Amino acid sequence: MITFPDNFWWGAATSGPQSEGRFNKKHANVFDYHFEIEPTAFHNQVGPDTASNFYNSYQSDIKLMRQAGMNSLRTSIQWSRLIDDLETNTVNQEAVDFYNKVIDSQLAEGMTPVMNLHHFDLPVELYDKYGGWESKKVVELFAGFAKQCFQLFGDRVKHWATHNEPMVVVEGQYLFQFHYPNIVDGKKAVQVAYNLNLASALAIKEFKALNIPDGKIGTILNLTPTYAASEKAEDQEAARIAELWNNKLFLEPAIFGHFPHELEELLVKDNVMWKTTEAEAQVIKENTVDFLGVNYYHPNRVKAPDLAPDSVGAWMPDRYYDAYDMPGRRVNLDRGWEIYPEALYDIAINIRDNYKNIPWYVSENGMGVSNEERFKNQEGMIEDDYRIDFVKEHLTWLHKGIAEGSDCFGYHMWTPIDCWSWLNSYKNRYGFISNDIHTQIKTIKKSGHWFKTISDQNGWEEEA
Ligand code: GAL
């Protein structure tokens, strides 16, 4: 038997903005707004209005998730739903009722609810008024929103996350133009990265002040490990800087309470260092996470840049490294992402050896596949054997890391039920449960039935 630790989380992750639909929501988040003004930027012009209709069907959805073996679920509370007055942080009662019902339904099914507070879904008004995450005012407002969540739901939700993949906000909004408002500005990106770290620490401070019995708080990072193209010094140096920027910029403050000094030196040298204060540094120092969530999809391979780092022009972090397309790599062609399950082992060992062996879990992993209808059998079930293979391979490497002492307590798939993706909408499907977006009929895929057996046995029998 390949057996996982006792009480292992077998589950999946989604987010409010990608599953609920916009029903009854007072404020628009940045994606709701982007779709309003530029629907053509979204695959087939499908926006987040209905998403997977979780707002209306949470109860039956959660039952289906349980049938697919999930003993835990992460979703997120939408700031743009929960808060009525964004300036004074008053709550919207219908939203409170909704999230209460979502939490209670999970508990009734025996599932552990995990709640995240920010999944790329800043209320757009806070962008318009203050410049969003560029502003420390927004950081403060976020901490107020977080406090409301802890007070309202902390009696039942014992596992919280401050952000999902904060680096994606930095890259999408401020560097590589895939999140509204699609700005390209390296210096702002640096400040936003700092502010997101500060926002996480301030939310943790609020959490600790409430002394919630058995409450734990963490953050969710897309720890995409960096692999250098070769042993050559230039490639190694490119990988060192890519790792500093992509991973350590969030990992080190979350776990050690300070930023990586080598990165600070580089940003000072390049004249793009963030604005900070002694008091903020103290907040970051004192408010580190209890656990870490790691989203892992694909490795990040880099090589020395083609251009010299002191080339003239606006500062961007990727002047220090270029993406490296490794010949012979294995790829999920629908999504264009390399498949490299061994990285989960490398992540496990990295956390064990370099990050205090902090408790962590795989908070997202998975594969997006288009046109899964082609795999439907006569009973209408999608036979997604490729997903089963994908998950099993990743779990095998994760298991090896755990066997060697890494403190991993769970595995969450992206996602329970096919849901809406940023810009790609419903192009690629990730779920253990399919969703016909025209009828909202949801059906467990072959992988979901398989996951139930894995979850029931807390592992699987090894083949002879
Ligand atoms: C992650 C993100 C999720 C989901 C997933 C698959 O980066 O956290 O929200 O979209 O990618 O595309």
TrEMBL record:
Q: Which GO terms describe its biological process?
A: carbohydrate catabolic process
User: What domain of life does the UniProt record list for this protein's source?
Assistant: Bacteria
Keywords (A to Z) from UniProt:
Glycosidase, Hydrolase
Molecular function terms, GO-annotated? beta-glucosidase activity
The cross-references to InterPro entries, in alphabetical order and at most eight, read: GH, Glyco_hydro_1
CC terms in the record's Gene Ontology section: cytosol
Q: Does the keyword Ribonucleoprotein apply?
A: no
Q: Does the keyword DNA damage apply?
A: no
Q: Where are the transmembrane segments?
A: none
Family indicated by similarity: Belongs to the glycosyl hydrolase 1 family.
Task: State what protein this is by name.
Answer: Glycoside hydrolase family 1 protein
